[in-house]
Structure formats: C-alpha cells, structure tokens
Amino acid sequence: MSETDTPVEEMSFEAAMRALEQVVGQLERGDVPLEDSIKLYERGAALKKRCEQKLKEAEEKVAAITLDAEGQPAGLKPVDPT
After folding, report:
1. Does this model's pTM top 0.90?
2. What's the domain count of the chain?
3. Are strands 73-76 and 65-67 parallel, antiparallel or unpaired?
4. In which family does this protein belong, per the annotation (predicted)?
5. What is the CATH number of the domain that holds 31?
6. Beta-sheet strands, E only, within the chain
C-alpha cells in the first residue's frame, strides 16, 4: 500500500509529512486541474491535521518524562487524559 492509498489517520508523522510535501509540490506547480487541486487541498488539510496531532502526542510524552535529583530521566509520570 503506497502513502497515497494509506488512510491519513493511520499514517506516521514522517509518512504524513512526506505526503504533505508531495501535495504542496503538486499544488505549487499549478499543473493540476481545478477539481484535482480541490481534492489535493482537502488531503493536504487532513495531512496537516495528522502531523499536528502526532506532534502534540510527542510533546505530551516528552512533558511526561520525570527527572531525578541529578536531572537525569527517572521515568514517566502518567499523562493527563484531558
């Protein structure tokens, strides 16, 4: 299954970024018919949202790392599910 066939909600951050870069490249070239441009734009918006979601998840994981008295990672604190 190629990245263009993979549902956006199943993509990793890296795969979504690559796909988003491809969409932006196609739109910037301007050689895509209007209807296809609209579909590309919609896919690009979904890919952007997926990237933002994956970044937020990563930030939350990093914020959950606890440090010991020497400033070394000591484990994880539970992430607030709200």
Report:
1. no
2. 1
3. antiparallel
4. Belongs to the XseB family.
5. 1.10.287
6. 65-67, 73-76
